[in-house]
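Narrative of activities, Objective 1.

The group set out to show that a structural description can be obtained from nothing but a protein's sequence at a throughput compatible with the screening campaign. Below is one input-output pair from the validation batch, recorded exactly as produced.
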Amino acid sequence: MNEVTIFGLLAAALVGLGLYGVLTHAAPLRRILSFNLLGGGVFLVFGVVARRGAGAGFDGDPVPQAIIITGIVVAFAATTLAIALLLRIAELRQDGTDD
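Output recorded for this entry:
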């Protein structure tokens, strides 16, 4: 097995674990973390697909790499926002207000 196959199998495992976590867990924090795991698997799949084209004798395409880096930054920002909203909801529930 070469490295592209190993990374492809790892990406499929990450996507599967993330999807399982999103569908089965009821806790919001676990869903957020599972969604991040799913996103990491998708980024890895995209990187593997871009690498396979480079393995055929072509130079590596910088566009998929730029899209992956941008996606990681956006995923980090979305995770930060989701956790901040989750903390705010928890704070409102402790105050007893339902506004």
